[in-house]
Amino acid sequence: MSLSATIKSIQDILRKDAGVSGDAQRISQLCWMLFLKIFDAQEAEAELEDETYKSPIAKEYRWREWAKDPEGITGDALLEHVEALFKSLKELSVGPKSNPRAAVVRSVFEDAYNYQKSGHLLRQVINKLNEINFNRRADIHQFGGIYEKILSDLRGAGNAGEYYTPRGVTQFIVDMVDPKLGEKVLDPACGTGGFLTSAIEHVRAKQVKTAKQRAKLQRQIYGVEKKPMPHLLCVTNMLLHGIEVPDQIRHGNTLSRPLNDYTSKDRVDVIITNPPFGGTEEDGIESGFPAAFQTRETADLFLVLIIHLLKKGGRGAVVLPDGTLFGDGVKARVKQHLLEECNLHTIVRMPKGVFAPYTSIKTNLLFFTKGEPTEEVWFYEHPYPEGYKSYSKTKPLRIEEFAPEKAWWNKRVENEHAWRVPIEDVVANGYNLDIKNPHEEEAENLDPDVLIAQYQKLAKQVEAAQNKLRDELGAALAGGRK
User: Fold this and answer.
1) Nearest one of 246, 242, 123 to 190, comparing CA atoms
2) Domain boundary pick from 109, 134, 159
3) Contact in structure between 359 and 278 (CB atoms under 8 Å)
4) What is the DSSP letter of 446?
5) Which of 232, 280, 338, 461 has its CA 20 to 30 A from that of 50?
């Protein structure tokens, strides 16, 4: 059976279980088991390389001991065993001298749950998972694509959709920011890890050839995720992409740490992220930020944090909604701060539907470099592909659509999609970055249908004026005759 068919059959089994409700729970249930199976495969490799390797997981709770045998424990006995497993993994001892893998496992299971109520169906799922061999590179590579599909399915799972950024967006941003081997790469709101996996693949393809380079890549990827489910999905994603001990993917809220607590050792070379927008932070979070930037709007706080965390010369790229571009008050002060501290060289304006069905809000991709003020901002309006009126699950945004932007990026000239705005114009306009495409307006003015409509409107106005003048003249003549 193919891997995709195996995953589909697992999802079908999960739908039969009364304890599992909806796509989000099915994916969460599947992923804690996937994590343990992948983790076990990586431990097998570690044991081959190091005879003294000791697992942080007690023997009876390692995947190979309780899950691998298709005729192993099932029913109520399996449910009891899994309950004890969860308790053990949630209480793993962690510290400076403990196995760093222990911290990864504990962080994953801190807020994980076993939703299944049928131990027999749970055994069926486990047996299906065991058909995937994570010690074979071909299976791992193929499963990476399937896992991407599982994550994209989250977009239709209620609020879970906020965890997933379309692959075309993450890849384009990473390609343009171009992280290098050894540069610290951070996503402070990493969700399921789409930006980080794109960065890993980008660096690995271009610059990783030796064992020493592979080891350097392992330590340059950082992420923080507030919610437990996407954190679990992200850590599993890191394992799938060859990050053997993803202890730099933390479970927590980046915004809860006061800005003044960050020091030079916390600075990074690259920040790539799609922070939550449209939401508000809990009371007190804003007090950790300078008074001029205090707000409970999540996206604004993240933008201030990103500017603060970048090294001088560091590169940032962030997905933000239209509201950030035209907002005033705190939003205007945040944009002023961005333009004074960084060179905001490019804004790619995306059409509606990129993040549907989670949100229909129009979004923008902002690219900037810290350490020098902005002198001009280039805008590029990303059009729908020919024949599209919107994106959908069956017609998602694809990386191939960004080919015109990539060709234009290093040889910038104004065209029907690109235009340049001097910083003086932005300042004079109150730091409003919601600047429409002037070429589009010109094109509208030249459109035959628009010209005909304008002519007909003017013709009616002229006719009305003539009629009024005729009536007034007639009345004047009639008065004179009297």
Assistant:
1) 246
2) 134
3) yes
4) H
5) 232
